[in-house]
Protein 1
Amino acid sequence: MLRVTDLVKHFPITKGLLKRKVGAVQAVDGLSFDVYPGETLGVVGESGCGKSTMGRLITRLLEPTGGKVEFEGRDITHLSTGQMRPMRRDVQMIFQDPYGSLNPRHTIGGIVGTPFRLQGVEPEGGVKKEVQGLLELVGLSPEHYNRYPHEFSGGQRQRIGIARALALRPKLVVADEPVSALDVSIQAQVVNLLDDLQSELGLTYVIIAHDLSVIRHVSDRIAVMYLGKIVELADRKSLYESPMHPYTKALLSAVPVPDPRRKGTRSDRIRLEGDVPSPISPPAGCRFHTRCWKATEICGVQEPPLLQLRTGHQVACHHPENAPDQVPGEERLPQAREAAELVSVAKPEPADQSAAKPAEDAAAEKPSAKGGPAKGGPAKDSSAKDGSAEDGSVEGAAAENTAVEDTAAGDTAVDPEAEAGPDAK
């Protein structure tokens, strides 16, 4: 249905009164992928990697700098506004911010009914009846037709945005982080709604998100982006069970496993060192090599192409995980040995309170009543605390700069009980 080839978008940086171009932000730089009818393609990556820009490019809300976008065999890369208008019926977008994407001066009936007016479509039974049917389809009441956006919660506003996108029964829907601004309970409702609508209406989705758990739930295939490029593209099962790109492996290591049976067990996490390079002047060669623990000399010189190393599994890496080395015999760079470390995180067992003396128990109760830590209580583990704060998102992984170091490099696991010090009991 959709084919994207070498898609590029550079935002110019100008200076002076004459607006002389002095550089460019390389938001998207050479994306190529296909979207098939009836499937859901998930796109993940940390903030600033170009996900939202890519979504606006394929819906032609932004003009591409280069490359080609084809929808159902037709090249729509450089169509004018008038030429794109008929295509808008088939390609729609759900925006990220449910608070900013709805006009506060318009009623819900006017907002959802706008696509019919712009396209000159008169549905059977009238626009009002059709809009009320759409509101009911997304779980709202037809009585909401005359209300204004400020009268609704965040989840309800996102449902209104979904109803507007589905008004003309499009074939392709691009959802730009549709649940990132919502509470977890509301996220589940919206995600399930998208699934139900896809089954009922036969929709094709491109869902952009930073929450890896949401993407795993809704996607058939997943593309991982880093600094304007796709570094890995695979089906859901293959990506989560056997990631090939080191960056993907780093992201997945930051996702907590909601399994009570694993309480108290150790889990390996990846801690990346350094910051994400600037898209204004990205590094030469592989863009991830400055933070990769497997980087060799060729990684800083030659950009790896996106190759299919397994059926349906593409990766752009000279030294992939869970696959044969594409450039064997290369020696790791000295800085690569310090680019990441292996951290083992475990929740310490609570201290045995039965052996404590009565005097110590009385002393322990006083600070705990004031909200402070009780003496003799379980040792605090900063690593475990950080791990529990993880929300399974790419942004969480980027904020903590997590990544993995080969155990062969000689890194030792961090013992939380050793870190707690002699005060832990």
Protein 2
Amino acid sequence: MFKVFSKCTLATIVVTSFFAGADQPRELDSSTWQLQWNDEFNYANAELDKNWVSQNGPTENPWVLSSRWRDNAQVKDGILHLLAKKEPRGGQDWTTGNIWSKRSFHYGYFEARFKYAGAYGTNNSFWFWPKQGVKDGLKACEIDINEGHFPNIINTNVHNWTDTYTLPNGRVTHRDNQLHHTLIGKPDHTVEFNKPVKTKKYD
């Protein structure tokens, strides 16, 4: 389940891993927000391509051991399943599923409900990325809402992909602000993020 609310709603939503949609209580007072877009995945698998696009190729990041394909993103019974398979394709030993929203968004409240894959080594992620690029003079930033790892790890991060610098060993890197959280494993456990991400609005 994905919902986008705005009081103004440019990033593209990126989703990887296994997603499920069970109803949970919400704390958002929706009377003060306007629903701009949502997807409950309550349609045939072929219709996924109306709102989402898959990578369909190898992954250049050396930390990612899988290529990503639309074949590994399957909608069934109102649930989007993103499958990881041990199979060589695209020059990598594993294949996985991922999707990017075709629509881009500005500012607002974003809500997603998903379930981690029950296996070590998976990256269950929900993040924002300017897939269509940015205008000259603006910064290309990635906001990782959750890069989750089985059984109980949450990483959040803000990457600034524009302002790079070179380390003494010659490696080119970029600025980020990674926060690491370990859940205590109880169903009612929550993590509160008290440090808001500050952004600038450009018209």
Protein 3
Amino acid sequence: MFSDFFDDISQSKDTFDLPVFTDSIELVALYDNKIIGLLDIGIYTKEISQKYLYYPADSVAYFSNFAIHPDYQGLKIAQQLFDVAKEQLIQKQMDVLAVFTRSDGPANHLYQKWGAELIAKNYLVLGIAKNEKESVKLSVDKGKKQLIVTHPHGEIANYYKRDGVYLVTKEEDLALFDAHKIIPEYSYILKINSTSKK
């Protein structure tokens, strides 16, 4: 099965340990003693939550893994897993849940249906940059709902390279590449605690 998360495939289950995480929510859906779905959420420490790039808050949770076996999709298993997880997030008094996804239309639709707000959209480019530059710094422009990439001297960069793949923040800058493949990435924030106002 192909996934747009080709660059984030683990050979073992993620762990949610200090100093990054204080807690986690880890759920599975079973059918005939087979795992047909899973949902993993890491809960960041207060310090990391308050410095979180996409949405600083006192308590930020991160959607680490969420998958339903293809043979069981469309049966509301994702909704059932999320309902259980959301109740636990409320009990843990979480402010927000950060969700990252790629070009998967049904997943994007589902997150939006749950009330997630698009914070940023960018593109992963597999290919060759026509003009490579130096190191960069990241920030988020919440008004434009995109990542901002800057060079050390403050000028705006059009892209940066992460693990051999370019991250491009503006669609028009895709022309700067001889691209083999372009994958949209979406960053969402789902407000859990109704008093969360950033």
Protein 4
Amino acid sequence: MKKKPFFPKAITLLSAWAHNYKTKIVIYASALEISDEELATEIAICDKIIDSINDVIGLKAGFKSGVNNRNDIINVDGTNLRLDIKRHKSAAGYTDAIGLALGIIGTDTEFDPNTYKPVITVEPFGNLVNIRFTKNGVNGINIYTRKKGDTNFKLLSRATKSPFKYQPAIDDSGKPIQWEFIAFGVIRDEEIGLPSDSVTFVFSQQTEA
């Protein structure tokens, strides 16, 4: 009958085997005609095996401790942070644009085209304007704009990728112009839902990122 290899493959068994071997080989070294140098080498190998196994056990214990610590931080401190954010969202100066920028606006589990309201932000990009948005279930958005003082918004463009880059016109005087932007969600070429909050941006040729 073929015997199993004496050198264990299972790590836990290998550690015990190495400890037993290094202890017992001292006893039988003379009978096996093992020199002191050979004996020291074999004991050192066993110690290396045992130490390497113990090192991994320590790493696993440390990893588990790290994971537990991470989970505690997320569960406890994360909960406190969410409570702080809830308070921030009730502040008078809070807007959906701020929420979008901070990444603190959740998405509805069920899409309702009648109540869909896009969120847009406007930021400078050289001599252009970046209009950022998230689709959240729509194919794109229709962006409308008007200059301060104008009554009606005019359709600027359909945007399907964020950010949408736009260069507002400036008058001959070169003075900064205040623009307002709103957007509607679009599905299959039809506008749906509610208009976004109006976002105001002052544009001039000197506007830079």
